[in-house]
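Bug: token stream looks shifted between consecutive jobs. Job 1:
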Amino acid sequence: MSVPPSDPRFDRAAASDDALLNAHEAAVGPQSNDRAHYPLRPLILLFVTSGFILFAATYLNRYAGQYDPTVFNENAAPSRGSEQAVKIDPVAMGKRLFNSGGACFTCHQPTGMGIPGVYPPLAGSEWAQGSPDRVIRILLAGLGGPITVEGKTFSTAQMPSFGASGFNWSDDKISQVLTYVRQEWGNKAGPITAEQVAAVRAVAGDHKTWTADELLQVK
């Protein structure tokens, strides 16, 4: 059986190479020649990302606590550095003790002037500004009987013990309140240390209430 020469299938098969190339280009469309240039958007994104990574690495290296997991543990006890002792102002602490409930200010008053005829003053007192060993003994064991302060006699004065038999204050507390008394209200005596209080406590032992005559024997 013969095929008519006008069959279009034979026309397609007989297409030349140029015709095929032209048909291909027409199907694909025109192609731009970018001459090997890259789009800027990916490059910008690459540089921004790299800069962020560099910044993050630098920040972590500086503030990550050397990557120690215990650095930011809120429940952990301090383990780095040495403890710094808090420096306490003995005069400020002595004033606080002096004015604490039931302590010195009750009788001697916040002004240090005492109560005329009953409790002797501390302001200007030769006893408060005198021998540290005497005034320490007064605070440790208390004072009873008459005592003369600035030429005035107080016959019923009773000083309670702030030592073991009374308020049971520590050596630090006694030294602080005495330092305050000796430097307040115009008094100009030197401070008293906890070591001085401890030394007198060791010598005086459990001595009971002192009298003025006994204290005058102490130098």
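Job 2, same session, no restart:
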Amino acid sequence: MLWVVAMVAGGCASRPLNPFTIETPPLILAPASVTDVHDGRGRFREIFCTVTEARGRDLPDYRPCDEALVALSGEHAASGRAVALGESHANLRVVVVPGVGWDCLARFVGVTRTGRRHVEGLGYRTGAIAVEGLSGSTRNAVQVRDAVLAFHRDNEAERLVMIGYSKGVNDILEAIVTYPEIRPHIAAVVSHAGAVGGSPLATDTPESLLGMLRFAPGAECEPGDGQALKSLRPDVRQRWLAENPLPDSIRYYSLVTFPEPDNISSVLTSSYNKLSRVDARNDSQVIFYDQVIPGSVILAYMNADHWAVALPLDRNHRVLGSTFVNRNAYPREVLLESVLRYVEEDLADEQMPGR
């Protein structure tokens, strides 16, 4: 949700979005094939297309799978393996951790439980973790820990698939590193347009501007520790990643937004153009390579901006959906089901002899 402040500050900013500094760990930008990141795009596309064909037209925001997913070079061909579409019996609960300012804007956005209801009908339990939208990831990690332990007390047998949208993935990662007692209860973590490596927009924007969200229509949020933007600065996130190896008892997955330039909602073009001063391959909030969890499986590059993959503004605000938020439609129910199908299959394969 950095767009709120990025547009305010965008007109007067002339300094580099990533300023010169030596306070950074050594970095390298390299293809996923030569790092510890794994490529699951071929199988995920196979699942996504199967779900789309089976029921996509009966769900909101239908889009053919080849229009919803971007095929960057090197994607593996389909395996030909059957895709399970029946009820899940894996005893998984999917929980979502939202991003910056979420508690301030939730009423206005009017997020429905359509996606959650869809996968609940397929045997998956669901939930959400409320974090402080204006607080940094270190503080929010405590709330993630408490929620995970509460889910475990409610059902000791289930394991969690945790989806972190935008900054939410950083809150999750800090929680699992800082509080090892929650790791046995988590099967997987998914970066959903996650700001894993931070966002240059956070460096360029004063924290005080983010506090304006408390005065948005219908806002119900506290000031928190006021560290949300600081915890999203690239230097902060990259240093944290360098100093905090992720535990290998959990599986990690990354869903990356990689929209075509004409598939950015008009209200987000200002922040898209601003971030394009660093790299035009961004979703208006985060550059594509900053969305990948180290050691994760890349599931897909999605042809959608930062809002479209998570916020159903087109469904709840028809006027906005036809004007300012005019590229917001995306098959989110198909996406969520496909993620859970892939993760469930991958976890089952991992337990097979020889893996």
